[in-house]
Amino acid sequence: MLDAVHDFFQALEPYVEAPARAIAALYPTPNRVLIDQFFIYFLLSLCFCLCMFVTSRVFTHAIVGKAYDKLLPSDRRTWHTNLVTFWPAFAVTAFALPAIVEFDVSMTSFASNVSPYTVKACGLAIGYMTWDLAVMLLNWADQCLAYGGKGAMYLFIVHHLLSIALWPYALTRGLCVYHINWFLVSEATNFNMSLRWYLVKLDKTAS
């Protein structure tokens, strides 16, 4: 199963390789191979976010029907952005989990080699976080209503900004790799959190 996921993404790499290398050239690091691979998966991630969002906008009403019509306008808008959170739960974990299993250095080591799985998982996760950060800033009022107010939103923004800034930096220098892998695997929790939101909005929490 994991091999199929890896092969699927590898087949998509050539489609974004040129723009990814152009962006990577702007990133100051001696590890060009790693950063090129990171930005390939970063762009693939943004493409998947956009595809999920558009797919939801096109097909949700036909599939969900009257239950969707009963939602508040803000919830209908959040429905589409929230659906995007599902795919990283599986895709990021599909790369980060093998990286943890294969990690052959002490978990307390500050410096280590970086697995290609970690680089790809990080690119996917940071691409998603960049998308999600844009969603939060562009749909501030809806997001505050959906996720618990401004306090929660400020926490999300700090979490995203720190991850976007620090994870690629650390990986290009082989630092804290084991711990970043665990942070990446935690993307799997998106599934539970997002599913709960849908169950609440559809009044299915007792089912």
Task: Explain what the structure shows.
Helix 4 packs across helix 7 and helix 5 (86-102) runs antiparallel to helix 10. The protein starts with a helix and ends in a 6-residue tail after the last helix. The radius of gyration is 18 Å and the shape is globular. The mean pLDDT is 93. It is mainly α. Helices cover 79% and strands 0% of the residues. The longest helix has 33 residues, at 32-64. It has helices spanning 2-24, 32-64, 66-69, 73-83, 86-102, 116-138, 140-147, 150-172, 177-185, 189-201. The protein contains ten helices and no strands.
Condensed summary:
By secondary structure, the chain is mostly helical. The chain has ten helices and no strands.
Short descriptors:
mainly alpha; globular
The tally of strands reads: 0
Instruction: Sketch the topology as an H/E string, one letter per element.
Output: HHHHHHHHHH
Helix content: over 70%
**Shape, principal axes of CA atoms:** globular
> What summary fits the major beta sheet?
none
Distance between termini?
30 Å
Beta-strand residue fraction = under 5%
